[in-house]
Amino acid sequence: MKGLKNIEVVPHRTEWQSHFKAEKAVLEKQLAERIIALYHIGSSSVVGLSAKPIIDMLLVTDDLEKLDLASPLFEQLGYEVMGEFGISGRRYYRKGKDPRTHHIHAFQFDNVTEIERHVLFRDYLRTHPKAATEYGKLKLQLAERFPHDIDSYCDGKEAFVKQLEKEALIWHFKTRDS
Asked: Does this model's pTM top 0.90?
């Protein structure tokens, strides 16, 4: 969607990890009975990777319908409740308007495909600095080329991300214990 807001991609910031830990502590305290795991994902979780200054989190829950009942609590914590938002079986929450500060991608524990896709992508970038550097350069180029068009920015990353996801899966299976 084209808009006036700038797409900002910045060099990695060391404080992103502490921002994640602080938000994780709040969420785990408020939603303890709904959270199985909460992971820092996305570019801000990869040291050295340029990223939009937004903390992406993956919340694994025991039951999405019960998590939906916690929507008022998410709103009290400053999150906008977005529903599936284009991905079946996901609940998406975003915090902050300008600037946006956090995203939560919530999946039920048995949605292994989506959970692993996010975690393996992160882990692959953490262990393959060349891929992370290439991805960071692409994001910087796209932010410069489409400074007010998030759809074009995301579309420009799509093929590269899909390729990295494939490489991450192959890497995962090659490095697993037999």
From this structure: yes
